Amino acid sequence: MNYLIRLKHQQHTPWQLLAFLLIFILCLLTSPVSKAADVETSFETTDLSGSFTLGTAPNTVTFTNGEAKFAGIASLYHSGSQAFMVENNTATVSFATPAAELSVFLKAQSGAAGATVNVFDISDNLVDSYTATTSWQELSITSGEGISRVELINNSSSYAVFDDFSFTALTAVEPPEDPVKLDDPIALPIFSGGLKLALEPFSQELVAPVWGTNAPGINDYFYVIDQVGFIWGISMASGEKALTADLSALLVDVGIEALGGFDERGLLGLAFHPDFVSNKTLYTFSSQPVFGEADFSTMPEGENADHQGVLTRWFADIGGEGGLIIDLESAQEILRIDQPQFNHNGGAITFDNNSLLYIALGDGGGADDIDGQSFLGTAMVGHGTDGNGQDTGNVLATILRIDPDGNNSENGAYGIPPDNPFVGISGVDEIFAYGLRNPYRISFDPVSGNLYAGDVGQNDIEEINNITSGGNYGWNIREGSFGFFANGDGEGYVYSQSETMDTINPVVEYDHDEGVAVIGGFVYRGTSYEDLLGRYVFGDFNGRLFYLNNENTISEFQDKDDIDVGAILGFARDAGGELYVLANENGLPSGNSGALYKITLLPNQSPVADAGSAQTVNEGDLVTLNAGGSSDPDGDPLRYQWTQSSGTSVTLNNPTAASPTFTAPSVSSTSSFSFTVEVNDGHLADNASVEITVNNVEEEDSGNDGGGGGGSLSFVIFLLALVFTVKGLITPLTPGNN
Asked: Where does the secretion signal sit in this chain (predicted)?
């Protein structure tokens, strides 16, 4: 309580002053005084579960052998596994990931009221409060929405005792009801970078080429799969193609009439074993009719899958037309998976350096990843009420990792690596990562070992992910880095949500202002283009080609001839590490417009900066700088950045424009100001400077003697005014005016 004593200005006797003083001292003595903790008592833990022993550790949360000690305040005393808190003190535990369950024991040492535990929800609202008694009480609290923090308070007249604090965090926080839709989630457009390419038609008259890779030991050819079931051997010297296998008879009929012939099924993946030279094995992933029981299925009893995704092993010899002879009688089925709908099949497969095979699978198709949604006139099944994206109990919406040379799987056809993240715990042993909507294309960087996936979004966000063991990439509670709301029978959408879920954000993402479906590619490790070395190259179904720059942001290639390749379907990498774009005119698995375009990088010349001519201006003038004379030998679009390099600091209006402005400042004498412009074509830059001279206007006018002595007249008038003013201020002191 604060007291304010206001003394009125009047004469007071000494006894009155003494009385006021005594009252003031009495007020101070009767005011309540609170004891404060001597250091910070609020701590945050990012662990998803834990068990605390309260103690006098430093004011951080220290984890040791599954326990954590926290306090760091002299008022929190440790005895055994108990924590004694003196009166008038509070300790707070905050959870970075909200707690789903927590438990704590408490009692009041003397029985006096005031020792409590307060529990707050994720909106920081007090949801419950518990008061201690002289007997031990165990508080066991469960919250489906999540607990954000807990306060341990002792406002009693003596000690309070808290013991055995433990908690388990939520694995995910449900999005709020009807969140606000983001109409433009990523406002910044994708800019052209400094890398310019020429797309050279390399091999033509395919149908719908979707992937290409090299075979170990074969240096003259690389191999491209066609969605309709063909495996083509492509000559690295000439681009001539040879049919090395026709697997179309194994596939479903590709091309859905109701969708104008569009389809996502077909021959989707091809990978050669790293030891191909010795074991002669390669693998395909394809969409086949439902046949027999699947190894993995999410279909309810009595419901049929649209098709099955099948992983097959083949044997081949080096030689023959196309450099490869595949034994079509050697097929060995490794894995069969029910696919609820025709789309979101994933299907990309690739090996790591340890001869482990990775298989990309989508969420089962349709929209929103939830049962009951209408899709092509039929209510969706095979997703359950919560979807497949966050369910590690089935293989959809995941990337699997298996050992094709092993046999400890349930069907005995492959092995399960013992260090897979879900081995020995809840979840399918084969899963390597999850939370992926449609990881249509995946590839390893052979130098860094990073596994990149292009994950196709729903209505808003396209993303490139760096896949790590056990990683959760968010779908169907996130689309990219944004929250995803299924919206019932309406169209799902993204909304802004803080980082409250244990998910991994994309390396890069873009929205549907820039594209429609991301097509993952490769990290360039060829020898032809140093400027492209180590950059991830990818594209979009709409025909745009991108790369990741050094800051892990997206830049668009500049195409010298502005070639329209049509719909980009995939990428290929040959034995030398050079890259190819795979496309056809309309994205449909029909016709013969499919082609390979070799990526050829053109040399980039530096722009030439021109900062304009020097200027002389007066103070107060509006000055316009001008870099409009800058140029680029390649005709690349230019970006500008103006900075001031000398003189009194001024404010440049729009310094990233070719012609920014500023107001010439007041100067005591003629002064010089220098400005420098950097002109950048997205890869190379050049600088130029210009000098601006600012004149002092009063200095210029001081030499003007026009007016015939007007300055002298002004001075006389000033003196007269001063005399009369002083006279008026000096008044004789008389008895009548004191």
From this structure: 1-36
Q: pTM higher than 0.70, yes or no?
A: no
Q: State both tokens at 162.
A: 């808290």
Q: What is the CATH number of the domain that holds 54?
A: 2.60.120
Domain range for 155 is: 42-169
> Which residue intervals of 150-306 are DSSP H helices?
276-279
146 secondary structure, DSSP code? E
Residues 389-435 pLDDT 10s: 999 999 999 999 999 999 999 999 999 999 999 999 999 999 999 99
Pairing type for strands 594-602 and 579-584 reads antiparallel
**pLDDT for res 637:** 84
> Do residues 339 and 359 make contact, with C-beta atoms less than 8 angstroms apart?
no
In angstroms, rounded to a whole number, what is the distance separating the alpha carbons of residues 572 and 715?
A: 89
| Total residue count of the chain as it appears in this document | 738
Residue that wins the pLDDT comparison between 57 and 634 = 634
User: Do 469 and 545 contact (CB within 8 A), yes or no?
Assistant: no
- Whether 152 and 281 share a structural domain: no
**633 with 579, same domain?**
no
CA pair distance 706, 712, nearest whole angstrom: 12
Higher pLDDT, 25 or 233: 233
| Cis before 476? omega within 30 | yes
Side chain identity, residue 323: G
DSSP 495-519: E---S-SS----SEEEETTT-SSEE
Is 224 in contact with 572 (CB distance < 8 Å)?
yes
- The two three-digit tokens of residue 519, written as one number: 């097509």
Distance of alpha carbon 253 from the chain centroid: 38
**Per-residue DSSP letter, 23:** H
- Residue 508 · residue 493 · CB < 8 Å: no
Instruction: Please state, in angstroms and rounded to a whole number, the distance separating the CA atoms of residues 41 and 252.
Output: 64
User: Considering only CA atoms, which of 363, 473, 359 is closest in space to residue 420?
Assistant: 359
Give the other-Cβ count within 10 Å of 8's Cβ: 5
Please name which of 501, 432, 512 lies closest in space to residue 465, comparing C-alpha atoms: 432
- Does residue 715 carry a pLDDT above 50? no
Instruction: Count up the domains in the chain and report the number.
Output: 3
Find out whether 482 and 496 touch, Cβ atoms under 8 Å.
yes
590 and 623 both lie in a single domain: no
Q: Which of 25-29, 193-197, 432-436, 481-485 has the highest mean pLDDT?
A: 432-436
Tally helices (H) and strands (E) across the chain. Answer: 4, 46
Distance of CA 626 to the CA centre of its chain: 38
DSSP per-residue codes, 383-426: STTT-STT-TTSSTTEEEEEBTT---STTSSSB--TTSTTTTSS
Instruction: State which amino acid sits at residue 588.
Output: L
Query: d(Cα 246, Cα 280) in Å, to the nearest integer?
Result: 18
Q: Which residues contact 11 (CB under 8 A, 6 or more apart)?
A: none
Residues 164 and 238 both lie in one domain: no
How far apart, in whole angstroms, are the C-alpha atoms of residue 550 and residue 540? 20
Question: Is 675 a domain residue?
Answer: yes
> pLDDT tens digit string along 288-302?
999 989 999 999 999
Note whether residue 163 is domain-resident. Answer: yes
Q: How many CA atoms lie within 13 A of 459 on its CB side?
A: 20
Beta bridge partner(s), residue 478 = 483
The burial of 200, by beta-carbon neighbours within 10 Å (0-12 exposed, 13-18 middle, 19 or more buried), is given as middle
Q: Is 364 left (phi over 0), alpha (psi -120 to 50) or beta?
A: left
Rg (alpha carbons) of the chain, rounded to whole number? 37
Helix (H, G, I), strand (E, B) or coil at 710: helix
- Residue 253, SS3 per DSSP: coil
Average confidence score pLDDT of the chain: 84
Our CA angle for 185, 452, 430, nearest 5°, is 110
